[in-house]
Specification:
6-stranded antiparallel sheet, TldD/PmbA_N, Metalloprtase-TldD/E_N
C-alpha cells in the first residue's frame, strides 16, 4: 500500500501536469487500500477474499467549465492520457457559475491533527477465520437459534491523498477491523433472523467475537412469535441500532445542495428551534479513532467540531464550496467525495448527544409503547418530511417488553418527530453516525 507521502506526491504531480496542459485549476484525489475478509457458515469456511486496489481521480477546470476522470493505471503514459482527456472534456462542458476549487485562503495549513485512525495490525486469514467462527459458535449456542446465515471477520487499511492547484497537498491513513454474526431462530413459518456486528479503527477496540455472537443469537430468539398491535397512536422508541437513521434524514435536509435546490423540509429553518430544548447534534471529525474522522475535507479545508443543533436550534447548513457559493455562505469544511466527480457535502462523526433519562425510564414513561429495532423500506419524503417506514420490534407495557411485533408501519412527519423527540442517556459511539434510544411521544402505528 502506498505511504501517505507517496500518495501525496502522485496526486500533486498529476495536478501539475493538468495545469501545464492548460487547465485553469485542478485537483486530484487518490485512494489506495487493501482488505481481507473471511466468512464461515455452520462451522465451515465459506469464503476468503483479499483485495488490493488503488485509483486516482482528476478534476480540471477551464474557467467555469469542469470535467472529472479517473484511472487505476498510474503509469506515466496513462496519466498523460488522463490529463489530456480531462482537459478536452472540460473545454466542451457547460458553464457552472458556482464551480471552482475552494478559496486558497481557506485551505488547511500546517500540520494536520493526529486522529489515531490507523492501526498497522494485519491479522492473517487464519486469525480472521477463528474470529468469525467464534462469533458464529456463540450465536448458535443461544437457546432458540436453529440455523445460521454465517459469521464474518475482516480487516482493511487505506491511504487517502488530495492535492489542489490552490496550494493544498495532504494525506492520511485509516484502518478498520470488523466482526459479525447472523442467525435464525424458530422453525418453519415462525423463523426470525437477526444479527450483530462491530467495526473499530483499532484491533484492540474490536468487541469480543463471543459477545457479538451472543447478542446476535439473543436478538434472533427474542423475535420469534411476533404479533401485530392494534392500530392507533403510540409512543415509539427507536433503538440505537435504528435511531441513527433519523440523523441520516437530518443530514440530508441540512445539505447545502438540498437547501440551494429548495428540496429540504428544513428550508428557511436556519436559526430556528427545530428540536426540543436541550437537544444537541454534534459533528466531530477529530474524534480519536472515530470511524469517520478526517483531518481535512474533500476540498482541503480544515475540519472542526461543530454543533449543527445547539439547545434545539439549527445553527448551520453543511456545505461544500459550490453549494456555499449558491447560498452566499462560507463552506463549512464538510466536502465529501470519491476519486471522481465533484464534491458533495456530508458530516463526519455525527451524533445526537444523550439526554438525562435512562433507556429504562423512557420505556416506562407510558403505559404502552412500541420499541422499534428494525426499519424496512424507504417511505421518507425529503421535501415535505413525511415519514412512513415498515418496522419490527417489541411491544412495551409498564416499562417491560411483553412480546415481539412485526409487519407494522410507523408514520409521522420528521418536523413533528424532531420537535418532540427525547434522547435517552445510553449513547455509545459505535457506527460513525450514532444516537441513543430516542423517544417519539406519538406516531401512527398500523399493520404493515
Amino acid at each position: 500500500m502506498l505511504s501517505p507521502e507517496q500518495a501525496t506526491d502522485i496526486a500533486a504531480r498529476l495536478v501539475e501536469r493538468a495545469v501545464k496542459a492548460g487547465a485553469t485549476a485542478a485537483d486530484a484525489m487518490l485512494v489506495a487500500g487493501s482488505s481481507t475478509s473471511v466468512s464461515v457458515r455452520l462451522g465451515e469456511l465459506e469464503d476468503v477474499s483479499r483485495s488490493d486496489d488503488r485509483e486516482i481521480g482528476l478534476r480540471v477546470f477551464a474557467g467555469q467549465r469542469s470535467a472529472s476522470v479517473a484511472s487505476a493505471n498510474f503509469s506515466d503514459d496513462s496519466l498523460d492520457e488522463l490529463v489530456a482527456r480531462a482537459v478536452a472534456m472540460a473545454a466542451e462542458a457547460p458553464e457552472d457559475p458556482f464551480a471552482g476549487l475552494a478559496a486558497a485562503e481557506l485551505l488547511l495549513t500546517g500540520a494536520a491533527p493526529d486522529l489515531e485512525a490507523y492501526d498497522a495490525s494485519d491479522p492473517d486469514p487464519a486469525a480472521l477465520r477463528a474470529r468469525a467462527l467464534a462469533a458464529e459458535v456463540a450465536a448458535r449456542a443461544m437457546p432458540g437459534v436453529t440455523n445460521s446465515n454465517g459469521g464474518s471477520a475482516g480487516s482493511s487499511a487505506s491511504t487517502v491523498a488530495l492535492a489542489t492547484s490552490g496550494g493544498f497537498a495532504g494525506a492520511y491513513r485509516a484502518s478498520g477491523f470488523s466482526c459479525s454474526a447472523s442467525v435464525v431462530a424458530g422453525e418453519g413459518s415462525a423463523m426470525q433472523r437477526d444479527y450483530a456486528s462491530h467495526v473499530a479503527r483499532f484491533l484492540e477496540d474490536l468487541e469480543a467475537a463471543e459477545e457479538i455472537g451472543r447478542r446476535a443469537g439473543e436478538r434472533a430468539a427474542a423475535r420469534v412469535g411476533p404479533v401485530k398491535p392494534a392500530p392507533g397512536r403510540y409512543p415509539v422508541l427507536f433503538d440505537p441500532r435504528v435511531a441513527a437513521s433519523l440523523l441520516g434524514h437530518f443530514s440530508a435536509a441540512t445539505s447545502g445542495s438540498a437547501v440551494a435546490r429548495k428540496t429540504s423540509f428544513l428550508l428557511e429553518r436556519l436559526g430556528e428551534r427545530v428540536f426540543a430544548p436541550g437537544v444537541t447534534i454534534r459533528d466531530d471529525p477529530h474524534r480519536p479513532r472515530g470511524l469517520r474522522s478526517r483531518p481535512f475535507d474533500g476540498e482541503g479545508l480544515p475540519t472542526r467540531a461543530l454543533d449543527l443543533v445547539a439547545d434545539g436550534v439549527l445553527t448551520s447548513w453543511v456545505a461544500d464550496s459550490a453549494a456555499a457559493r449558491q447560498l452566499g455562505i462560507a463552506p463549512t469544511g464538510h466536502a465529501s467525495r470519491g476519486v471522481s466527480g465533484a464534491p458533495g457535502a456530508a458530516p463526519s462523526n455525527l451524533s445526537l448527544l444523550p439526554g438525562t433519562r435512562s433507556r429504562e425510564e423512557l420505556l416506562a414513561a407510558f403505559p404502552r409503547a412500541i420499541l422499534v429495532t428494525e426499519l424496512i423500506g424507504q417511505g421518507v419524503n425529503g421535501v415535505t418530511g413525511d415519514y412512513s417506514r415498515g418496522a419490527a420490534g417489541f411491544l412495551i407495557e409498564g416499562g417491560e417488553i411483553v412480546g415481539p411485533v412485526a409487519e407494522i408501519t410507523v408514520a409521522s412527519n420528521l418536523k413533528d418527530m424532531f420537535a418532540t423527540l427525547e434522547p435517552g442517556s445510553d449513547l455509545e459511539y459505535r457506527r460513525g453516525v450514532d444516537a441513543p434510544t430516542l423517544l417519539i411521544p406519538e406516531m401512527t402505528v398500523a399493520a404493515g
